[in-house]
Design brief:
- The chain has four helices and two strands.
- By secondary structure, it is mainly alpha-helical.
- It has one domain (5-83).
- A two-stranded antiparallel ribbon has the order 1-2.
- The protein starts with a helix and ends in a 6-residue tail after the last helix.
- The model has no long low-confidence stretch (mean pLDDT 93).
Length: 89
């Protein structure tokens, strides 16, 4: 598996992470339906499609409302570059 969003961002919200007590578990770390997508663990490399992820200290909503922010994110850009033609938006 390649690095996941919580590893890039060092947010501590992944299952068992240091900040889950205060911020909760990020839904990207538990989204098993996306496991393996873009070579990630659960939703860790497909976080832009998952509602309830946190960015900039705020919980993000649906894909439609957060996609502009996500398209500018270093995680999104890195995953897209690493996956090349196999990238799943």
């Amino acid at each position: 598996m390649k690095r996941n969003c919580w590893e890039y961002k060092n947010c501590g919200r992944q299952t068992g992470g240091a900040k889950t007590g205060e911020l909760g578990v990020c839904p990207a770390s538990t989204a098993t339906a996306y496991h393996g997508t873009n070579s990630g663990s659960n939703g860790g490399r497909h976080c832009w499609k998952i509602a309830g992820t946190m960015c900039g200290g705020q919980v993000q909503g649906s894909f439609a409302t957060k996609m502009l922010n996500c398209a500018a994110c270093e995680v999104f850009k890195t995953v897209r570059a690493e996956e090349g033609a196999a990238f799943k938006a």
